[in-house]
Each structure stands twice: as structure tokens, then as C-alpha cells.
Amino acid sequence: MEKISDKRRARKRRPTPPLPAPRWSDCLYLRLARSDVGMFRFLLEAEDNLGYMTVVDRSAAVLRVVFSPHQRRAVLAYLESMRGLAPFSLAYDPPPAGPA
Description:
alpha+beta; elongated
């Protein structure tokens, strides 16, 4: 009878998630020109699952960008890369949310 190799006999491990799922979201408030809100939305949606935005003040064009706290660095890097297409300024960066 043929001998089974050690590699086939070894158990395959299931990959574990790299980070635990966050219990709350992080957000930034941005101010930009009213004419750039649509462009900003399209650019943010083009980067799959990075975050989403909602308009907080329509007349002042203040947006709230919501994202996972684990992706804060990636969100800030992406926002900087799209600053040339839809210029904005940081209106408010709230402290990290979480249990009190």
C-alpha cells in the first residue's frame, strides 16, 4: 500500500481574522464647495468599502465621512490623493469614539 505523505496528513488551519470587528465607527467632518459634493461622493464610492459620506449642512457643504477606525490611515491617505479633484478642508475631527 502507498504511504501518505506528511504534507497531506497535516491539518490545514483556518485563517483567523487580522483584527476584531469594531463596535463603533470613526468619522471626519469636511467642508468643500457645494459644486464639488457630487464629485466627492463619486470619488469616495469608487474606493470600495472604504467609507461613506452624508451631507450634514447643505448650505455650507459640510460632509460627514464615516469609516472603520481600523482604516483611518487608509482613509486619510485616500482623501489626500483626491484633494486635487475635489478640494476640501477638515472642518472637525472628533475624538475617537468608544466606551466611556
